[in-house]
């Protein structure tokens, strides 16, 4: 069994050594330009076109991240980057769900307890009590109910908050109200005070955080974007913030990264910026996942995390 590895900025030594321990029978190497040697599996992030284009005999390509939109965008720009018919597998959790839960919980509770407003008062030297949000009216909507979104929704519900989720297909989680499909999207938005976006980045979800959506939320709603910058129409958010329809936003992802120094998000008093740090790929957990999936394929079974190329996730 031969495995090739490529990542533009991860330390290859950690991954090669770790995979050799997990699959001692395999030959594992870092791919470099000109390498056209045998390969049964590939572990990649943003692979160069020439790495995989001619490898029709691969049994699986493992994307070293939960989202695969960047790799699919490469395929669209340079058809053949992903060999036709070769399964593409994404990381389903591998420690990222817990990180997303932590970020989402911190952001939601910051707004629920009005800590963001107390921070503003501190900067102005104001000592003033702010009435707490009524728990029954503080509805949190999680957009995207996959592995990450489902766990985030359940974690938020554990705080006794009213939580609802919306996804393409029907999903159910204990303590979470479920909505699915385009027909139920408006009902999901109505009465929602906080949107936590964890949708996959697909043509159908691009620009989904927009003026129309903001207008259907409660007045003074909050936006938390943890998925992709492409989901958010930035000018629409700024307009909604300045009108008061959106009270504040916490953003971890942006249309262009790094965020330009002159971007208005940096200085807007109701926007919190973090530099795409909501969840990282954890090597040990990721390697466990990939190794188990390779064993599954070798045994003649289907791996978990299979990507539907047409849907984009």
TrEMBL record:
The keyword ATP-binding does not apply. It comes from the Bacteria. CDD domains: GDH_like_2. InterPro entries: D-isomer_DH_NAD-bd, NAD(P)-bd_dom_sf. Residues 106-278 form the D-isomer specific 2-hydroxyacid dehydrogenase NAD-binding domain. It comes from Enterobacillus tribolii. This is Glyoxylate/hydroxypyruvate reductase A. GO terms for molecular function: NAD binding; oxidoreductase activity. Pfam families: 2-Hacid_dh_C. Keywords: NAD, Oxidoreductase, Pyruvate.
């Amino acid at each position: 069994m031969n495995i090739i590895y490529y990542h533009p900025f991860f330390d290859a030594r950690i991954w090669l050594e770790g995979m050799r321990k997990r699959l001692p029978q395999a030959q594992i190497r870092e791919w470099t330009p000109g390498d056209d040697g045998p390969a049964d599996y590939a572990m990649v992030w943003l692979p160069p076109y020439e790495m995989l284009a001619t490898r029709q005999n691969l049994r699986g390509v493992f994307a070293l991240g939960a989202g695969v939109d960047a790799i699919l965008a490469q395929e669209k720009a340079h058809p053949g980057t992903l060999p036709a018919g070769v399964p593409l597998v994404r990381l389903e959790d591998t420690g990222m769900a817990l990180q997303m839960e932590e970020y989402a919980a911190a952001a939601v509770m910051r707004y629920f307890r009005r800590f963001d407003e107390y921070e503003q008062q501190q900067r102005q030297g104001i000592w003033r009590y702010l009435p707490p949000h009524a728990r029954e009216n503080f509805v949190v909507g999680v957009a995207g109910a996959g592995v990450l979104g489902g766990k985030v929704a359940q974690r938020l519900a554990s705080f006794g908050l009213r939580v609802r989720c919306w996804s393409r297909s029907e999903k159910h989680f204990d303590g979470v109200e479920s909505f699915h499909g385009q027909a139920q999207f408006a009902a999901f938005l109505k009465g929602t005070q906080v949107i936590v976006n964890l949708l996959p980045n697909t043509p159908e979800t691009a620009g989904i955080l927009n003026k129309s959506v903001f207008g259907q939320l409660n007045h003074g709603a909050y936006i938390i974007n943890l998925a992709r910058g492409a989901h958010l129409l930035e000018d629409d958010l700024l307009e909604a913030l300045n009108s008061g329809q959106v009270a504040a936003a916490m953003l971890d992802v942006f249309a262009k990264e790094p965020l330009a120094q002159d971007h208005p998000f940096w200085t807007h008093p109701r926007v919190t910026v973090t530099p795409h740090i909501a969840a990282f790929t954890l090597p040990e957990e990721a390697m466990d996942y990939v190794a188990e999936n390779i064993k599954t394929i070798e045994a003649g079974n289907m791996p978990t995390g299979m990507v539907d190329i047409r849907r984009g996730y």
